Fold these 2 entries.
Entry 1:
Amino acid sequence: MNRRAFHRAPEGERRQDLIEATLDCIAEFGLKGATLRQIAIRAGVTAGLVRHYFDSKDQMVAEAYRTVIASLTEKAEAIEGNPETRLRDFIVINLTEPVANSRSLSLWAAFISQVRVDPTLAAIHREGYLGFRNALETLISDFLVANGRAPDGDACRRHAIAINGLMDGLWLEGCLAGDLFRESELVSIALTSIEAMLGLPLVPPHARTGNSN
Amino acid sequence: MNRRAFHRAPEGERRQDLIEATLDCIAEFGLKGATLRQIAIRAGVTAGLVRHYFDSKDQMVAEAYRTVIASLTEKAEAIEGNPETRLRDFIVINLTEPVANSRSLSLWAAFISQVRVDPTLAAIHREGYLGFRNALETLISDFLVANGRAPDGDACRRHAIAINGLMDGLWLEGCLAGDLFRESELVSIALTSIEAMLGLPLVPPHARTGNSN
DNA sequence: CCGCTTATTATACGCTTGAATAATTTCTGC
DNA sequence: GCAGAAATTATTCAAGCGTATAATAAGCGG
């Protein structure tokens, strides 16, 4: 009996591989096509191994969703610098690779369509969404203050909603039909539009000259 | 043998019922949970009947997607009135019920996540998306002309992309977490933002007084 | 009210799914 | 280098899937 050769993966690594394979399959075949067997093939193991690392397939999928959410928000949270450049960086990051590509959208859409079905996913979603929105609201508030504008609570909230919406929408367009847009065209459009909405210039990080008006 | 009683549905009606049941199931259980048996239960028939009206389940799902696309665009295309009010109406329609609700989003997301997998759905998607985008671009162009602005091709395109993005994003936010927003708050935010982006007021249809500046 | 068409049900089939279990290999500590 | 623990494979299982087909009921024209 020729049994397949294998090696034991280091601590935690196999878990990560399985999650990554899960996401690959969901992006490529949809939730419906992301079967244990497909995922196992992608991860280079056999299907049975999944249940050695996860209680069930559903649990693995949920953890995969956590990974997606984290990758969408962690880059935004890692932004440094002064308030006047952070907002701009945030916009650029969210509208360029690797946050904005068709794989991201496929994953995002697959999970979103399942959020109403699966309460576990719903909880993960809600947490991630609120985190993202709060991060942006803080960014905007800080930016306004740094530009000498009073942080009127309601106005700030409305700005956050609008900018969040604009970014989500442009991200969507970029993911859906990135080939229809010239290089960094979406970023440029976003910056111009947000400047108009806020009534303030978004000075590029490398060109700051103190013209804060 | 007690066979289930039934009645023959009028021409075309059963087809429509099946498509509607398909959409209900996709919205409620996701694509994975929208099985022939579930769909049949929802439509009040037995599963076998599906293949009397459609070549396959996939074909029925594709037709269901056409229905979704149509419902998203037909209301926009039916807008009448002068160029200065049509844009506003378009925005309002797309950010209020029934276009903006969680069911719409679930359906949209389910299909979008499948667009990369299924070429048939991809074709349907592309057609609908371009139609929507062109409709909006025309609306904006007409609006700008009516307000005495030269329809600079590139500027018009950029405006269309930005406004389309903003609307998509706000639609998304409204669908995802409509309970976080006050009544018609999203519409108000959209209108304010778009006015800022275009540098023109979006006069409400019932309050037109000729102040075209 | 009867016979024909066909819409509809009922049932069966082959296949895939997630899960469970048993068998086996790998690695670690001694 | 040998035991024992743990990771991995292999196999099996029941359930559910989409599809195919045969039986039956409904409605129509005569």
Entry 2:
Amino acid sequence: MAETALTTEQIIEAAEDVLRRFGPAKATVVDVARALGVSHGTVYRHFPSKAALRAAVTRRWLDRAHAALPAIATGSQSPDRRLRLWLEALYGAKKRKALDDPELFATYSVLAAESGSVLDEHLTTLESQLAVIIAEGQDDGIFARDGDPLTLAQIVFQATARFHDPVYAPLWSAPAADRDFAALVGLVLRGLAAR
Amino acid sequence: MAETALTTEQIIEAAEDVLRRFGPAKATVVDVARALGVSHGTVYRHFPSKAALRAAVTRRWLDRAHAALPAIATGSQSPDRRLRLWLEALYGAKKRKALDDPELFATYSVLAAESGSVLDEHLTTLESQLAVIIAEGQDDGIFARDGDPLTLAQIVFQATARFHDPVYAPLWSAPAADRDFAALVGLVLRGLAAR
DNA sequence: GGGATGACAGATTTCAATATCTGTCATCCC
DNA sequence: GGGATGACAGATATTGAAATCTGTCATCCC
């Protein structure tokens, strides 16, 4: 069992590969097992269902895609600048992935949509990063103090949905997209600012 | 030909009825012709294609759904109040339709998505209504003067997408939806306000 | 003449038979 | 013992033949 031990991580990697090659509609557990040279029963020893395996792949992908954001949220710059940088990093990462490999991006959009709980957890994480920035901005007197930081974070997240929700990905390559994004961030920052 | 003359309007009405009953996936031109008691060739005398007929139905539905908005845009109240009322009317109309008859709403969501030009034209109309309100607000000194009204209107429209884009319809019945909407409108209005 | 018709070709959809997949579990083998 | 296996039942997907639909047009009929 020594060097040939099949790890959960290996299965996730194989599943990611199969999804990349076949797409979400065609990728099967049997494909994953075949890629690993084991029977599909073995995969079910590590994951209770196909959905759970796909959820694990999705979770890892979402975490990696937004790995740079926590550092921005807790950075040393002023909160308003950090908020702008954070939103730009989120939009930039999504846009780059969507344009670099549209098929793969579409695959992960489907995966994220199908495992709602993974997505919800991810979005909650992002919103709490935003909330940290906003709370510090309120403490510094840069942002208006009326309003709970987490609620404001959710509102800011909703207001910028067009620039991070995958359903809008086709619009991110429009000529005016980056200009519109900058203007929207400007509006949001003026909305948050202390009077 | 006197009283039995088949009008374009009658065909649109029959098509609307067929779409309501069968849904966008099943409704056919033959169904529409059958409902009118004519051959399907006759329908093609009035519309160049199935897509054009469906586009006509969509156009009429969109116009009727938002018939109340122009009056609000040109109303007598202050621009900031009008902006809030206009956005509330838009969200309210969509939400009511989505909750009253989800199937019909889904049908029209599909129709709107499939005939992009009709939708684009409709959105342009809505944005120009917003632009009128914003321009007046700038003239009155209520809104900041930096920024072209039409661009600002587009940004406001994008910022509130979550509360009018049909893809988000499932979220409109969430308990927090109305509260979030009010908070978002508040943020947008503060963002537009003159300092 | 001008609008309605229905036969037609090619494209699309439906349907049922067939194949594959998901998830379980008794069995195997190191 | 503990992990891997593969046969199995029910669910889902694929496939190809048959049916229907879209769009055209020569013809009909008021």
